[in-house]
């Protein structure tokens, strides 16, 4: 029979051993998953959620395959942008009128988007020549037929909008329940003909006032808009009601004919959608404006251009679906590239993290607001 003192020492030894083992594993675990540590401060602004999120974080950090964590860490410049996202997003957001006015005044005086973002009869006279934005040598003559299709006046010139939602197509919108909040804005911008049907409506809304189209979709999805595919094209357009359809007809020559054809089809079949051509002059001005602020990308993404336009014409700009990383900032699940598919972006053209960094700066200055978390479903 063992004396009780031995028994106590024995249990104490086992206890210390088990505790040490647990602590050792935990440190090992955390150091293996630096990527998540970058993300943690994102949720610090809501303490009642923190313990719940910590639980999920632990679950992920022990179960997530290595490639999940590597994705955040390996992406060039992502760590820094993520750290900024965490810092800025943790602070409460408030519209800061003087910053907003100062910035939008500079933007307007350099880019004149409210008058020149789209081609109109007022800013592009008959018989003038349009220089393309994406190819320096390409030009187009403004013939009477082309000129007739231009709207007379600019669509934004008459008044300033109060509230605007700009919807990026990021996978972060999945299960966000942001639909009602997005649609509550006076004007909703969307990019690249995203689906807004009942499968997605709850999370992305279904109101659209301006939607952009990358003309390559007309070749790929609608067989270059030949007669057989016209009904399908018009049916797709119905989802956007009577919104403006923004076509970059004069960025690359490849886009010109097909954009003009799209506009003609819409007119011929009396679809309520209103096609407008993006103005390459505006595109070039935006490019030099942003490069003077240190953003030296080969091409600005459409989403980024639309945000710039919204800043000029709206008093209040709310962004949804802008999150260029592959992990959800609060749920930590892997995200698809778009909320509706997982086709990767052309990373060679657009440097989303550096554009996102600019947007974050504007968020932190109270000029616009980026929404990353979920919304109240019955906003
Ligand atoms: C914090 O999270 C809880 C639970 O998700 C939620 O009910 C509450 O509204 C949140 N508070 C803030 C300030 O976002
Ligand atoms: C903006 O564009 C309009 C129309 O082209 C022009 O009349 C106006 O002078 C421009 N304003 C600035 C500040 O460039
Ligand atoms: C979204 O929510 C549904 C229903 O709760 C769930 O089945 C699905 O896995 C969720 N998707 C993501 C990406 O979170
Ligand atoms: C959006 O959905 C609502 C309710 O389902 C519907 O009444 C409305 O017509 C839809 N809007 C558009 C632009 O399709």
UniProtKB/TrEMBL annotation:
<feature type="transmembrane region" description="Helical">
    <location>
        <begin position="9"/>
        <end position="28"/>
    </location>
</feature>
<keyword id="KW-0328">Glycosyltransferase</keyword>
<keyword id="KW-0472">Membrane</keyword>
<dbReference type="GO" id="GO:0000139">
    <property type="term" value="C:Golgi membrane"/>
</dbReference>
<dbReference type="InterPro" id="IPR050943">
    <property type="entry name" value="Glycosyltr_29_Sialyltrsf"/>
</dbReference>
<comment type="similarity">
    <text>Belongs to the glycosyltransferase 29 family.</text>
</comment>
<dbReference type="GO" id="GO:0006491">
    <property type="term" value="P:N-glycan processing"/>
</dbReference>
<keyword id="KW-1133">Transmembrane helix</keyword>
<keyword id="KW-0808">Transferase</keyword>
<protein>
    <submittedName>
        <fullName>Alpha-2,8-sialyltransferase 8F-like</fullName>
    </submittedName>
</protein>
<dbReference type="InterPro" id="IPR038578">
    <property type="entry name" value="GT29-like_sf"/>
</dbReference>
<dbReference type="GO" id="GO:0009311">
    <property type="term" value="P:oligosaccharide metabolic process"/>
</dbReference>
<feature type="disulfide bond">
    <location>
        <begin position="164"/>
        <end position="314"/>
    </location>
</feature>
<keyword id="KW-0325">Glycoprotein</keyword>
<keyword id="KW-0812">Transmembrane</keyword>
<keyword id="KW-0333">Golgi apparatus</keyword>
<keyword id="KW-1015">Disulfide bond</keyword>
<dbReference type="InterPro" id="IPR001675">
    <property type="entry name" value="Glyco_trans_29"/>
</dbReference>
<dbReference type="GO" id="GO:0003828">
    <property type="term" value="F:alpha-N-acetylneuraminate alpha-2,8-sialyltransferase activity"/>
</dbReference>
<dbReference type="InterPro" id="IPR012163">
    <property type="entry name" value="Sialyl_trans"/>
</dbReference>
<keyword id="KW-0735">Signal-anchor</keyword>
<dbReference type="Pfam" id="PF00777">
    <property type="entry name" value="Glyco_transf_29"/>
</dbReference>
């Amino acid at each position: 029979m063992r004396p009780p003192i031995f028994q106590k020492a024995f249990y104490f030894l086992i206890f210390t051993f088990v505790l040490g083992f647990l602590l050792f594993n935990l440190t090992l675990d955390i150091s293996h998953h630096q990527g998540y540590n970058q993300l943690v401060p994102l949720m610090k602004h809501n303490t009642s959620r923190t313990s719940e999120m910590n639980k999920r974080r632990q679950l992920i950090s022990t179960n997530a395959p290595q490639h999940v964590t590597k994705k955040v860490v390996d992406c060039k410049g992502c760590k820094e942008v993520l750290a900024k996202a965490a810092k800025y997003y943790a602070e409460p957001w408030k519209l800061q009128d003087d910053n907003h006015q100062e910035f939008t005044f500079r933007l307007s005086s350099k880019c004149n988007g409210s008058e020149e973002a789209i081609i109109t009869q007022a800013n592009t006279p008959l018989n003038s020549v349009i220089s393309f934005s994406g190819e320096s040598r390409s030009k187009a003559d403004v013939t009477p037929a082309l000129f007739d299709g231009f709207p007379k006046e600019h669509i934004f010139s008459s008044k300033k909008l109060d509230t605007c939602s700009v919807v990026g197509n990021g996978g972060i919108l999945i299960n966000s329940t942001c639909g009602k909040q997005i649609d509550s804005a006076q004007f909703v911008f969307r990019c690249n003909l995203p689906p807004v049907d009942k499968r997605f409506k709850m999370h992305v809304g279904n109101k659209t006032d301006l939607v952009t189209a990358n003309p390559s979709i007309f070749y790929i999805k609608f067989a270059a808009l030949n007669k057989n595919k016209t009904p399908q094209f018009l049916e797709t357009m119905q989802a956007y009601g009577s919104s403006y359809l923004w076509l970059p007809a004069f960025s690359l020559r490849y886009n010109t004919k097909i954009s003009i054809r799209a506009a003609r089809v819409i007119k011929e079949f009396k679809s309520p959608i209103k096609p407008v051509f993006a103005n390459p002059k505006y595109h070039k001005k935006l490019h030099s404006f942003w490069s003077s602020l240190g953003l030296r990308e080969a091409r600005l993404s459409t989403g980024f251009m639309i945000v710039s336009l919204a800043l000029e014409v709206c008093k209040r700009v709310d962004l949804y679906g802008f999150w260029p990383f592959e992990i959800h900032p609060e749920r930590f699940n892997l995200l698809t590239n778009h909320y509706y598919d997982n086709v990767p972006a052309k990373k060679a053209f657009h440097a989303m993290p550096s554009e996102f960094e600019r947007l974050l700066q504007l968020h932190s200055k109270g000029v616009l607001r980026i929404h990353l978390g979920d919304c109240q479903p019955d906003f």
